[in-house]
Design goal:
The relative contact order is 0.13. By secondary structure, the protein is mainly beta. The chain has a 4-stranded antiparallel sheet. The chain has one helix at residues 101-104, and strands spanning 2-5, 36-42, 47-53, 60-69, 74-81, 86-92, 95-100, 115-118, 125-130, 136-141, 145-149. It starts with a strand and ends in a 6-residue tail after the last strand. The protein is globular. The chain has 2 domains: 2-53, no CATH class; 60-149. It contains 1 helix and 11 strands.
Amino acid sequence: MIYQAGETWPLGEPFVFRWHARRDPDYRKYEGGRNRLVQAWHNGKRYHEIQTIGETLPSVVGNLSLIRDTQHNQHYLAYRNSDGHLLEATFQQGSWKVTNVTELAWAPPATSDPAGMISKLTGSRYYVYHGQDGHLHELYFDGSWNHHDLGTRSD
């Protein structure tokens, strides 16, 4: 399960996982940053092992976009941070890798949440968003991150 620990996310009971396990010596509540994406692992009975995604990056703004590459069985989470950059998180080899796709594509900052898709023909990933310049922008990955300015609504 992936969720956003919001600015007012409560720390006290009953908003903890593994209620009965809080007496265990290695039990811990979520004490990470606010407005972050968090993953909680499911062991078949309950959620446990709360892990923050991108803890050191600026906080999450708005909603994320989840896309899945069925050919490679890989999920991609794209979201906007407080700087207006689009970040993509992937779970690889037991940990989360977060990439700032706005910087890699030399694209302008966003004012909207990303909408994403994967091409079944090429395997390329695409994200579309409204930029701070009033234009619609497309970021795509086909071996490296690239940017297209799609223009304004009147174009």
